[in-house]
Amino acid sequence: MNFLSFSGLVVFLSSIGCFIFIFSSRSLDHVKFLWSLFNIAVALWGGSFFLGFSAADQPGALFWFRFLSVTSIFIPLFFLQFSLFFSEENPNYNHFLILNYLLSVGYFLAVVIFPGTFIQKTTPRFGLDYYPSAGSLFWIFPVLYSYQWICAALLLYRKFRHSRGAVREQARYILIGIALAYLGGGSTFFGVVGIDLFPYPAVLVSLYVVLIAYATIRHRLMDIRVAVTSAGIFFLTYALALGMPFYFHHIGYKFEALLLAILLATAAPFIYARLKKRAEDSILSEQKLYQDILLRASEGFSRLKSLEEITRFVVQVFPKVMRLKSAAFYLYDGQRLSLKDSFGGEVYAPEIPSENRIVACLKSSGAVLVDELRDELGAGREAALFFKDHPAAAALAVTRDARLLGIIFLGEKMDGIPFSERDLMVLRVIADHTALAMENSRHWADAMRRMEEDGQRARMASLDAMASSLAHEIDNPNTIIIGQSELVGETIDMPEVVMPEGVRADIKRSLGYMIEASRRVAGMVQTILEYSRMGQGGLNPVRIDPAVDAFEFLINPQMKKYGVVLRKDIAPDLPLILGDKVQLEEIFMNFATNGIFAVRGNREDKRLTLRIFRKGPDILRIEFTDNGQGISPWLLKDVFLPSVTTKGSAEGTGLGLYRVRKIVDFHNGEVWAESQGEGRGSCFVVELPVYKGDEGEFQVNMSRKVF
Length: 707
Description:
The chain is α+β, with helices and mostly antiparallel strands. The protein has helices spanning 3-23, 30-54, 58-86, 94-113, 140-161, 165-192, 204-217, 224-250, 254-283, 285-298, 307-322, 357-365, 370-377, 381-389, 421-492, 501-532, 545-562, 581-599, 656-666, and strands at 119-125, 128-134, 326-332, 336-344, 351-353, 367-369, 394-400, 403-410, 540-542, 565-570, 577-579, 607-615, 619-626, 670-675, 682-689. It contains 19 helices and 15 strands. The strands form four sheets. It has a six-stranded antiparallel sheet, with helices on both faces. Strands 10-12-13-15-14 form a five-stranded mixed sheet, covered by helices on one side.
């Protein structure tokens, strides 16, 4: 076995191995199928190359060299078609491809019919007994061969220039492979045409086949340096493992050659694996360093207590460690994915509809390369528009117990190196830690809210007791002030008290002011005391006007503080309703406090409007309107649910309107919210049934409680 026959054998084995590898892959698309055809053509070329240079006689060598010439015609043609499909240019070059097929098939028929015109004979060359010699038609082949290879290279270079991420890296692999193939295959032409240049590069064809097969099948590519280094180590290791026994056998040490072949065949895989690992550790040392940093950092998620801290940590810390161009975090609220935080100069869409097909793919994939999503979704308009608004190289679905919590988009790396398989593994761990931290933050927020609610109830209970005590403490001296003021008024009216009439009138006027003010204090104490007791828990025939007056008395200080004007439009002679006066006050108080918050952002016109009127014979309608920030349409149905609030987390608990709904349900009424959208104000409507009994009749406690 000489060097050229050995090279042909290596090419044959590598091509057959790549063919089996590709054909056994999970999906066989047009690109992979064309690469399989190309591998078969190269395998036939390598096999005939091996048999031709190993032939024992001239007729056998000539037959295999002519067979080699026939198979080699289709190698550049199949690669050209592969390049058209890989670069997605095939629809634009149908006529061009047909023309090349016609040229190659015509040339093939001419060679088959007149084989002597391609390979005329064999001659001794380079110390070999048989080497092919060119015929008259052979000179066309280098031109056709070079033309088709150059066209394929231009297509792939354009794909490389206009792609990014893994696709760009694939194109880079194939372009390097083209250079190796052209150098290896083209080197065999010189000896055929009589130029004494030994075709040592022919063995590079095998490296080229393996390299492009790797790029075609593997989307999650390593650094190009790793692939080239691994291939180089592989060929160096096995060249020594196969070459040394061959050399010893050649110089006559046949037994020693056999022992050495057995020893090296056993040791070569271990040597290759160790050298490959050391090379990868050296080349990827920086990448492994940041992966270790990310894994250690993700363990610190447990210390983050809020969603804001978690999203900021993910979007700000990880991209800087990985040296990414951009990143974005979308949170899922059950209806849509909203942009929570972002990093870098890329602009991301503010929302993603949850029914988007790409979201479903992400949820099932975990961590995935965006290019793989493109391949899975095809080149449709939906995918093109989505990835235009979400520029990224990789995406993470943050899920917990099959529930989607959010999606993280990660941009390309600064150095242009694509995400590796280990990168994706690390990112999956980060996504799991992120989901756990988000769940913990929600539990933490719920626990804090429950503590606040328990504390609020305890404070309200204390306030009830305090209000009762204060009422007595204030009311007793206030009663004395009223009694003594009235006594002084009666005393100065006695005949024996002599004073000028003008002075008497001034004193009596001052005493009247004092008595009026004291009675207002007494009314204030009684109102606060009633409100702090949260009603009696029963329904009685009541008028709504006293509840409005008491509510206005309580809310007036806040209205003055924020410069809010309350306008009332209350119809006269309103009917009785079956209700609880203090709970009705609470409805008005909740609507008013929400309204004050809603109009605080207005510069000048801060207006609340309370309208009460009879709607038909059986319904009393209450409308509380503000001209504030309004309510989003999708939130209108949810504002009365517990823990739903339009205020910030530090200003509202989401329990006020929930309490309103419970009170209205207790009064057998209905309540809802209306709004034209954000910035256009809102209106809360309550409808209560009119009391059907006699106004003089007193219907007592219905023994129902709000909770």
